[in-house]
Design goal:
flat, 5 strands, 17% strand, three-stranded antiparallel sheet, 135 residues
Amino acid sequence: MDVNLCEDGGVTTTAPAPLPLAAPADGGCCAPALSQAVEPGVAQELARSFKALADPARVQLLAIVANQPGAEACVCDLTEPVGLSQPTVSHHLKILVEAGLLEREQRGRWAYFSLAPGALAALIGSLSAATQVNA
């Protein structure tokens, strides 16, 4: 865009002329996209898992549980490391359980959470297959 100052103190602008676009020889701009790169069911599962991991608190909780002895932790031990109240931590853990990333076991008054066997490996495998990337 050109800006010109007038003698009377005013300003005028002129828009640049648009660049001409070359017409594609074959009528299309590029190769056609794949109609379906990933099965809808696989995409649904991946989205559910990634949606669960879209919150930083849930990523922290998953990492804390994974790094505990035996890869399990009591909900009572998870509130302080993430700085959230017990009801909020329980809500986040419920979402991770529903996504199939953690398992829950009630022991008396307290709930214990552990990594779901193979959940992270399955997530990585599904994502690699869906994107055709070798992990």
